[in-house]
C-alpha cells in the first residue's frame, strides 16, 4: 500500500532505462564499412584489367559480400539479443519498494529462527537487513540477510539467459545496495551443497526471485556492524580523546583485520549500529530476561509490584549526590532509591512489595562502575522472626535468575563470551549459599589476602580493591562467585539500619556480591519511631530536618511491623554476570556525568 | 529472637504488678471491729446487770463472734481467690512482644485467605493489624484482625476462672490496644454460631490464647480506617482549603455515620492509613495486575522489553512542559515520553519493543486528569504492510487487559465499586473493535451530539468536553466504552506523524478512548530522514535545533524500516476502567504541581 512506501534518503542506484537500451559494442566488422553495403572495387579510376582478373575480382567481391552479409546477420541477431536483455525482463522484481511492486501473495512469510526442512523448495518472503552484498562475475550476487537476534542467511541472485526472474541488471542492482539497508526479499529456500560459512543459518540458503529496497542506508556508515561487534577497551568519556578515536574509526570503513576497536563514545555516537550488533542485542536480551526472572520469582513468593515516584520533595537519604530541579514554585529532587517508599508500602499494610525502576545519583564518578541513572530492582518485606528471612529471599531470587538465565539465554551468553571471553560464573545450589559476616570477611582478607590488606579493620567499610580481593579468596575457598557479607559495621550503614541487639557495633545489614563486586545492599530497618529518632540523633542528624521528619513520621502514623529489604542494581548484575569491562555496556542508554545523548 | 523485638513508641498499658496484688475491698464486716476479736461487753463501766441479761448478752456475743468468724473466713477465702487472680496466670500470654514471650512452636502459621475447615480446632498463629477492640463486660474482649487484601476475622478472648490462658487482666489489656497496632496472636479456630458480620472471614472465628503487641499505633490516628475507605470528593490541591478540611477530619475520630469524607490532601497527609484502606489496596492490586497483563500480552506477541532513560540531553518533543535541571556543567531534561528511544530501538534492529516507566510533564494543570509524573506503557513495532497492524496490537492488548482483569481481580473490582459505584465498563469481542476516523467522529458529534458541538470541524483537535460527548454517543450507538479514533488531522499531530499518502490533510495516527477519555495516543512515524526533515520545516521548526537534529540523524545512520507505536497512560486506564473521580486515586504517589510529598 502506498502509505507504507518509504522514500529513499540516498538516491538508489539508477534503474535500467526503459526505452533506450544501453549501447553494447557492435561486433567487430571491417573498419569503417558497414555490412550490407558492398565495398567499392579497388583501382576503379579507369584502369584496364583482364577478364580473368575481373572474374577473380567479382568472385572475391561476392565472397566478401557474403562474408559481410553473414556478419550483418550475426550483428543483427546479437543486437536483437542485447535489446531483449536491456529490456530487462526482471524490472518488476527489484528496485525501491513501491505499491506496484509486490511479493507474490502465496509467498510464505518467514523468520530465520523458524526456518526448517518444510520450507525447502517453497517460495518465502523475508524482511531483513542486508548486511553484505558481493558480486561474482556479472550475473551472480551473494548477499547476507540478517534478522533480529543474530539470525542471518545467505541469499543468491543469479541472472538467467532470459533475464527472469533475475536479470543481469537486477543482480548488479542488488550488488549495489548499501550494507544495513532494509530489504524485502522473495526467494526459494534451498539446501546448499556445503554449509554456508559466516551465516547463523548455514544449512539453508535463499534463491532470490525478488528484492525491494524498503529503507536505504547511507553509502558510508559511521561504524560498521563488524566494528560494532568488537570488544571495547576505551570507556573514557573525555571528549577530546574520543574525537581522535572517532576519526580513526571513521576512516576504518574497509574493515581490515586487526583494526583497533571503536571507543564507547564512538559506539554511542553511532547508536543505531551499536544496537544492531549481535553483541548488544544479546546483552539486551539477557538484561530483559533477567528483569523478567526477577519479577517472576518475587511474584511467585507473594510480592506485589508498586511504583515509587522519581520526583520527591525532600532528599531523604542526604543532600549529597542528589539531583535538584526547579519544580513550579518549589524545588524537587530525583529519588536516589525507592527505600522511603518501599517502607511506606509496608507501613501501609503490604506484606511484601517490589519495584523495578530508575534511580539517580548526581555523583561525578567517571568509572566503568558508575552511572548517574540506573535501574533498581527493589524489594521490601515484613519480617516474622528474623531478618535472615529477607536475605533468604534475596539470595534465592538471584539464584533463580542465575539458574534460569543459563537456560533461557544460552545462545546469547555464548555470543557475548565469544566477544568478551570470561570464566564461568560460579554459584551454589539453593540452600548452600555462602554467607560470611563482615568480620569473617575481614579476617579472611587479613589472613589469606594480599600483603596490603593485612591491617583491614572490622569497624571500617571495605574499599573496592578489598572487595575484589575478597571475591577472589571466596572463589578459591568456596567455589562461588556469588556470596553475602552480613552484619556490616554500624559506621558503614545509614541511620535507618537496625543494630544487632546482641552487638550494637554491627547492624542487621548485608551486601551481596558477584565476582567481588557489590550488586545488592540491604538489611533490616528500624520500625519503631522512638528508636529511629534516637538513632538519627546519634548519627548527628537533626530529626526535624526536611525529609528526615517526614520519614520518621511514617512510623508514628500507625504501628509498623518489623521489615527489611534490599536493592539490586540490574545493570551491575548483567555486567558482572557476563564479566563485561563496564556497566555501561549493560545499559540501554548509559548516563554519565559527561554523557546525556543519545 | 531478641533482634526482632520492636520497642513501643506509645507506652503500652501497664502490666499487672507481679508482687503486690491490687487491693480488693474486703467484704463488709461490722464497722470498725475486726472479726476474731470479741467485742467488749456493752456498759462495762461498773453497771449492775442481771444474770439473765448477762447470759443473753453472752449468747448474743457468741452469735456475733460466730458471724464475724464466718465473715472473716469468707473474706480470707475471697482474698486468697483475689490474690490468685491478681497473680495473673496469663501473664506470659500477652503484653509487648519480647524474646521471652513465644507463640507455641506447634501453632500453624495461617493467612486468612487460606482459612478453611481443616483448621477448625487447630492452634494457629496470625500476624495482623488489630483494627478494632471492644470489651464485653470485664471478662471478654472482641477484636477484628486484618491482613493485607481486606481479609479480616473476629477474635475473642474470654477470661477463665483460673485466669489461663486468658485472665481478666489480659482481656482488659487486649481491649486497650490502639486500633491499627500490629499484633501477633495465637488462638484456636472455631465456627461461630451465626456468621460474623463485618468481617470478610465470617464462617470462622479465633479463640485467642495469646496476644502480643508487635508495633503500637498512636492513641489517636490522623485518619481512621473507616474514613480512609470513604469516597473522596475533594481533590483540590489548595492548601488553605485542605487545612480546614483536615481539621474537620482530625475531629472526626469517633466515626459517626454521615460524617463528611476526607479530602485527597488529608489522605496524602495520612498516607499510611490511606494505603491501609481496603479500597486503596484493591486499586493498587488492580493497577499492578493491569501492568502485568500489559507485559504478558506484549511478550506473547514477540515484543522485547527495554528501558528508556529519564534524563535526556535535549527536549526532543518541544521545550514547553519539560522539567529542566542542572546536570554537572550542562542542563538536563526529564523525558516527556520514551518516543525517541523506542524509535532508536527499532532503528537499532529490534522488531518489536515495549517499556513501562515514568514520564514527566511540567504542566501546571491542577485537574483530576493530570499529574506531573505518571507511568507510560509504551510500545513500538516494525510495520509490514499497513500501520493498522500496530493499532491491532494496541487494541488487542487493551482488550486482553480488560478481559483478564475481570477474572483476576473480580473481588477487588467489586470492592472499589462498593465505594465508587459505576456502570459496567463495556468493551467488544476481539476483532469487533469500534474504529471511527476522526472525521466520522466529528460528524457523529455534529449530527447527534449536544447543540454546542454542531459546528465542530474535521481539521481541529477535539476538546475534553467534545471527547466526553462523543464517548457517550459511541456507548449508545455501538455499546462500547472502548474505541479508537483514527486519521487525526495533520494540524493536531506532532512533526514525526506520518501523513496519509492518500490524503495529506490527515495522519496515520490515532487515539484510543475509555469512557470518552483518551488513554493512548500513537501512529505511524516518518522513517525516512528526507521526508522527516521536510515535514519538520513545514511545521515551522528548525531541523538543526537541539534535540531535533539528533532525532533526524538517527534515520540517517542506517536504513530504518517503517514503524509505529503508541503510549498508554497506565494511571488513566486504571482510573477510567474503575470510573474513579480522579486519576490521582489510581497512582501510588500522585505528583501534582503543588504536591511532592509523601
UniProtKB/TrEMBL annotation, chains A, B:
PROSITE patterns xref list: AA_TRNA_LIGASE_II
Biased composition regions of type Low complexity, renumbered to the chain: 19-38, 73-87
Gene Ontology molecular function: any one: RNA binding
Signal peptide as annotated in the record: none
Feature: compositional bias, Basic and acidic residues: 55-72
EC class: ligase
Domain Aminoacyl-transfer RNA synthetases class-II family profile residue range list: 286-598
Pfam families attached to this UniProt entry: tRNA-synt_2
Gene3D superfamilies per record: Bira Bifunctional Protein, Domain 2 (3.30.930.10), Nucleic acid-binding proteins (2.40.50.140)
Single GO biological process annotation from the record: aspartyl-tRNA aminoacylation
Entry keyword ATP-binding: yes
EC number: 6.1.1.12
Compartments it resides in: Cytoplasm
Keywords: Aminoacyl-tRNA synthetase, ATP-binding, Cytoplasm, Ligase, Nucleotide-binding, Protein biosynthesis
Recorded family membership: Belongs to the class-II aminoacyl-tRNA synthetase family. Type 2 subfamily.
Protein name: Probable aspartate--tRNA ligase, cytoplasmic
Top-level taxonomy: Eukaryota, Fungi, Dikarya, Ascomycota, Pezizomycotina
Amino acid at each position: 500500500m502506498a502509505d507504507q512506501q518509504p522514500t529513499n534518503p540516498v538516491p538508489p542506484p539508477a534503474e535500467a532505462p526503459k526505452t533506450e537500451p544501453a549501447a553494447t559494442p557492435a561486433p567487430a566488422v571491417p573498419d569503417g564499412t558497414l555490412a550490407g553495403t558492398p565495398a567499392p572495387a579497388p583501382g576503379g579510376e579507369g584502369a584496364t584489367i583482364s577478364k580473368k582478373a575481373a572474374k577473380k575480382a567479382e568472385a572475391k567481391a561476392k565472397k566478401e559480400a557474403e562474408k559481410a552479409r553473414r556478419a550483418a546477420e550475426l550483428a543483427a541477431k546479437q543486437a536483437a539479443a542485447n535489446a531483449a536483455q536491456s529490456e530487462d525482463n526482471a524490472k518488476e522484481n527489484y528496485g525501491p519498494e513501491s505499491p506496484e511492486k509486490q511479493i507474490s501473495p502465496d509467498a510464505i512469510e518467514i523468520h530465520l529462527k523458524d526456518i526448517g526442512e518444510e520450507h525447502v523448495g517453497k517460495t518465502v518472503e523475508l524482511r531483513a537487513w542486508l548486511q553484505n552484498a558481493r558480486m561474482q562475475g556479472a550475473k551472480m550476487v551473494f548477499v547476507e540477510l540478517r534478522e533480529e537476534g543474530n539470525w542471518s542467511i545467505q541469499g543468491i541472485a543469479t541472472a538467467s539467459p532470459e533475464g527472469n526472474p533475475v536479470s543481469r541488471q537486477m543482480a548488479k542492482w542488488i550488488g549495489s545496495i548499501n550494507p544495513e539497508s532494509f530489504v524485502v526479499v522473495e526467494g526459494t529456500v534451498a539446501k546448499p551443497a556445503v554449509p554456508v560459512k559466516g551465516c547463523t543459518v548455514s544449512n539453508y540458503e535463499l534463491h532470490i526471485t525478488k528484492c525491494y529496497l524498503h529503507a536505504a542506508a547511507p553509502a558510508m556508515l559511521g561504524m560498521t556492524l563488524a566494528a560494532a561487534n568488537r570488544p571495547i577497551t576505551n570507556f573514557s568519556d573525555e571528549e577530546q580523546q574520543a574525537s581522535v578515536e572517532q576519526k580513526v574509526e571513521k576512516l576504518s570503513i574497509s574493515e581490515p583485520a586487526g583494526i583497533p576497536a571503536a571507543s564507547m563514545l564512538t559506539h554511542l555516537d553511532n547508536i543505531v549500529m551499536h544496537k544492531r550488533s549481535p553483541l548488544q542485542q544479546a546483552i539486551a536480551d539477557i538484561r530483559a530476561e533477567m528483569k523478567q526472572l526477577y519479577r517472576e520469582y518475587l511474584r511467585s513468593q507473594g510480592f506485589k509490584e508498586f511504583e515509587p515516584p522519581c520526583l520527591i520533595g525532600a532528599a531523604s537519604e542526604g543532600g549529597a549526590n542528589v539531583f535538584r530541579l526547579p519544580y513550579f514554585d518549589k524545588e524537587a529532587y530525583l529519588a536516589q532509591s525507592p527505600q522511603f517508599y518501599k517502607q511506606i508500602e509496608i507501613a501501609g499494610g503490604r506484606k511484601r512489595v517490589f519495584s523495578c525502576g530508575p534511580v539517580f545519583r548526581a555523583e561525578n564518578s567517571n568509572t566503568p562502575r558508575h552511572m548517574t541513572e540506573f535501574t533498581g530492582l527493589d524489594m521490601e518485606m515484613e519480617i516474622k522472626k528474623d531478618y535472615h528471612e529477607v536475605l533468604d529471599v534475596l539470595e534465592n531470587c538471584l539464584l533463580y535468575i542465575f539458574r534460569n538465565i543459563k537456560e533461557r539465554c544460552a545462545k546469547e551468553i555464548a555470543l557475548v563470551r565469544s566477544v568478551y571471553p570470561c570464566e564461568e560464573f560460579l554459584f551454589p545450589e539453593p540452600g548452600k549459599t555462602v554467607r560470611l559476616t563482615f568480620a569473617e570477611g575481614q579476617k579472611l582478607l587479613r589472613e589469606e589476602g594480599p600483603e596490603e590488606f593485612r591491617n583491614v579493620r572490622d569497624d571500617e567499610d571495605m574499599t573496592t580493591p578489598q572487595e575484589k580481593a575478597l571475591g577472589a579468596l571466596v572463589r578459591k575457598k568456596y567455589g562461588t562467585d556469588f556470596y553475602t557479607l552480613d552484619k556490616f559495621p554500624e559506621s558503614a550503614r545509614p541511620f535507618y539500619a537496625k543494630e544487632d541487639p546482641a552487638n550494637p557495633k554491627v547492624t542487621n545489614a548485608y551486601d551481596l556480591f558477584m565476582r567481588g563486586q557489590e550488586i545488592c545492599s540491604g538489611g533490616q530497618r528500624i520500625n519503631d519511631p522512638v528508636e529511629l529518632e534516637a538513632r538519627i540523633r546519634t548519627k548527628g542528624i537533626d530529626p526535624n530536618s526536611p525529609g528526615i521528619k517526614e520519614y520518621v513520621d511514617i512510623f508514628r502514623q500507625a504501628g509498623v511491623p518489623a521489615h527489611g529489604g534490599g536493592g539490586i542494581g540490574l545493570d551491575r548484575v548483567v555486567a558482572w554476570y557476563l564479566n563485561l569491562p563496564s556497566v555501561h555496556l549493560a545499559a540501554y542508554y548509559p548516563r554519565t556525568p559527561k554523557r546525556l545523548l543519545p
